[in-house]
């Protein structure tokens, strides 16, 4: 498997389900955590998550919100190695009887290689954590 950069702490990739919760539920505790990550320049996003958000936007207002929020984030580039590593991880998991959607595997590999935690409520990532070095972000209470 292809390896990544040395570890850097406090960097968090914010998954689409957290963004959706923030856009649709302004009183969610996730809103406060996302704003804090953005202000500290610790919040990251990748193009797959951006695409997921735009596909799921229910209105022009939501699309505008996505553009505004994402402009304050660090946008990660993907590499060929990210896709190779995602495929290798997916194959390893499938040999154990577990099938994970490819976008989630790619997102996981983006985090693993760059030593980011994933901020998500998607249970697929709990499973991926058991088969990889993926770390989940635990929001401060």
Query: What is the SS-derived class?
Result: alpha/beta
- Assign the CATH topology: Rossmann fold
Strand content: 5-15%
H and E order = EHHEHHEHHEHE
Strand arrangement, major sheet: 3-2-1-4-5
The helix content, as a percent range, equals: 55-70%
Gross morphology is globular
Average pLDDT number: 89
Gyration radius (Cα, Å) is 15 Å
Instruction: Tell how many strands the DSSP assignment holds.
Output: 5
Biggest sheet record: 5 strands, parallel
CATH class: Alpha Beta
* CATH homologous superfamily (4th level) name: 5'-nuclease
Tags for this model:
globular; 141 residues; single chain; alpha/beta; five-stranded parallel beta sheet; Rossmann fold; disordered N terminus; 7 helices
Describe this structure in words.
The protein is α/β, with parallel strands linked by helices and 141 residues long. The protein has one domain (12-136): 5'-nuclease (Rossmann fold, 3-Layer(aba) Sandwich), CATH 3.40.50.1010. It is 57% helix and 11% strand. The chain has a five-stranded parallel sheet. Strand 4 (117-119), helix 7 and strand 5 (135-136) form a beta-alpha-beta unit. The longest helix is centred in the middle third of the chain and has 16 residues, at 80-95.
